[in-house]
Specification:
Layout (H helix, E strand, L loop, with lengths): L9 H8 L4 H8 L17 E6 L2 H9 L8 E4 L9 E4 L1 H5 L8 H7 L4 E3 L3 H15 L6 E5 L2 E5 L9 H16 L3 E6 L2 H10 L8 E3 L5 H4 L13 H9 L5 H5 L3 H19 L21 E8 L2 H21 L4 E10 L8 E11 L2 H15 L5 E6 L1
Parallel strand pairs: 2-4, 7-8
Antiparallel strand pairs: 1-6, 1-7, 2-3, 5-6, 9-12, 10-11, 10-12
Helix pairs in contact: 6-7, 13-14
The chain binds magnesium ion.
The site of magnesium ion has 5 residues, from β1.
Length: 386
Amino acid sequence: MTGNKLTPGSNMRWESSRMVLPEHREALLQHKGDQQPMPTNKKNRVVMLVDMQSFYANIEKSYDPTLKDKPVAVAGDPKIRSGVILAACPIAKKRGVKTAEALWEAQMKCPDLVVVRPRMQLYLDISIEIAIILETFTDLVEPYSIDEIFVEMTGALHGRTPHEVGQLMVNKIYQNHGLIARVGIGPNKVMAKMACDHFAKKQPEGIFCLTNDNMPDKLWPLPIGKMFGVGNRMEHHLRDMGIRTIGQLANAELKDITKRWGINGEVLWQTAHGIDEAPVTIDTHIRRKAIGHSMTLPRDYKTWDEIKIVLRELCEEVARRTRANGYAGTVVTVGVGGSYNNRGSSFSRQKKLLTETDDGKTIYDAAEKLFKYHWDRQAVRSVGVT
Ligand SMILES: [Mg+2]
């Protein structure tokens, strides 16, 4: 409720740093001719993406041991049957409960579902505590969303294998918070992310190492839509060109790809070859985020029902802080970050209230109006209120 600027979600920052570096581009252009340039990763980096399994639902379970063996879901308001499921634990998922579906649908499939109300501030606090645990392994820790964190482990392995260090991280997070983490390992961020999403989550120990050597066997057979950076629209375009797998993109002529999509096509082609120069950058906002002003969501939120819950929590938190500091404010700002494939949906808008307030409901009403007026109904990845 002050003039604070909205902190954009960390995913936004990563996107901007993923632009191809000029010297890299020049190196690629020098290889013109019928020979494909041979892409390589610059140095032997070790990057990890640590992802929390069923983050919200598993936090609730670790806080209430009586829920341990029960199917648990987090939903906006457990009393409203038309409410929406924000998160479900693995037991509930096995029983058919899906995120973003209506509560009554979930209850039809799983009548003994235990439904709890979300505690966003708690989830945000634990997210920061997990980042602090990872800081005991390396000083380069970058939160990507509330339940995913990048760590640069280059030069920080101290004689251990990446897999061993991943196991230590998983153990430490479990010991401290009773939460299950999965670790994707790769020579850069995109490889670590794909190692995590497509492989680590399916491993019993939750760890997978994607390398330049196993990439042709593991990554290339996957459908093109599974590649990082390829959204629905791009998937259709690539399929129209006859590119159905990541390997087919890797083996496509770079000039055909750049002719159609320019530098963006080149970035995708590089991703298919496992190339990404983006550094893991320390997030100086880690602790500032704890004040609950803005958050990057674990996935894209597409419906008002889902977004509303987050917005309401943020407004309550802003009001709490305002009261704690003995202030009252008159300007409400709502900021929204679009999903990866749709940055055009981002906005930040302000509204001046008629009177000063430190009341969450008043702030929320203004925030809801702002949001509904400016939101283009596209998926949302980060939300902030100040
Ligand atoms: Mg997760």
